[in-house]
């Protein structure tokens, strides 16, 4: 009797193993990218969903808004990578807009890492199997000062008008301005991809909803 149970157990394990291998080895579905909204959001065609298209947000990636510095470049670069191409997705989280957060692959290319490495997006800390690689790529880009970290978008002085030297920082919805004479003025950077602005007068900054830094006299 014991031998019979042993044989049955072996057979069951073999069958279970077969189905497990079949399931894990089945190829991931591929989707066609029909549109690129901006540097971190795409639309895929998915006939199995209603509606038949879905918005996908690149996991751990934050590209500039299309109207900000680097925005058009990030969108154009993402279009070059994925538009009208087949992509594979790895993700199960949804953001607060209901979009799927995913690692996006074109063949073996991780699109999330490619756009960060090109300097047209920032790394965010969403946990994924690629988090450390994305974080490393982001650090390298900041050191190299390319893309949004070049003088195109990251500035400590106004390259177009030295008289308009009031720095307006937008951080987490809070608007603060700094002028020469403020205690930390020299350490304040203008990150145009984040929505920072240059102003010519304090009145101009105030009219745009900015308040004077507490470090200013």
Secondary-structure blueprint:
Elements: H1 2-25, E1 30-38, E2 41-45, E3 53-58, E4 61-62, H2 71-82, E5 86-94, E6 100-106, E7 109-110, H3 111-117, E8 122-123, H4 131-144, E9 154-155, E10 166-171, E11 174-178, E12 190-191, E13 197-199, H5 202-207, E14 211-212
Parallel strand pairs: 3-6, 11-14
Antiparallel strand pairs: 1-2, 1-5, 2-3, 4-8, 5-6, 6-7, 9-12, 10-11, 10-13
Helix pairs in contact: 3-4
How is this structure best described in words?
This protein is 29% helix and 29% strand. With 217 residues, the chain is of the alpha+beta class. It has two domains: 30-149, OB fold (Dihydrolipoamide Acetyltransferase, E2P) (Beta Barrel); 154-212, no CATH class. Strands 1-2-3-6-5 form a five-stranded mixed barrel. A four-stranded mixed β-sheet has the order 13-10-11-14. Strands 4-8 form a two-stranded antiparallel ribbon. Helix 3 runs parallel beside helix 4. The longest helix is centred in the first third of the chain and has 24 residues, at 2-25. The relative contact order is 0.11.
